[in-house]
Amino acid sequence: MEQETDSDFAALRDEIRGLRAEVKRLNDHRFIKVQNSTRRMLTFMLLRGLALGLGTVIGASVLVSVLAFVLAQINFIPIVGEWAQDFARQIEAELAANRGEPPPVEGEANPDGSIAPKGDGQ
Questions:
Q1: Chain Cα centroid distance, residue 107
Q2: What's residue 120's pLDDT?
Q3: Domain boundaries, the chain
Q4: What single DSSP character describes residue 118?
Q5: 29 DSSP 8-state letter
Q6: Residue 116, class by beta-carbon neighbours within 10 Å (0-12 exposed, 13-18 middle, 19+ buried)?
Q7: pTM for the full predicted model
Q8: 109 pairs with which residues across the strands?
Q9: What is the C-alpha separation between 93 and 87, in angstroms, rounded?
């Protein structure tokens, strides 16, 4: 009976040593070190938020520009094609206004976004 108790204690002691080693290894992990320091955690969260915001803005910009380009290419569907062309003209007018270029000619968008009348000027 005493021999079983000694072997149980030895096994328990080995388990505790193993657990201590594992806890030490986990505490030395970078994630835990960041979480233990308020300054490090705030810095990490700030950088994470900046990256998320920048990625969202860039992704949305690319998506909208690709969508506008694709819609501007659709000329065979009358309503969507006209709407897409008007949308593209407005974007081009805004870009021209930002660059300080003269206003568009007849039939193109004005810098304020309105469409200049088409026709013979009557």
A1: 37
A2: 42
A3: 74-122
A4: P
A5: S
A6: middle
A7: 0.40
A8: 115
A9: 10
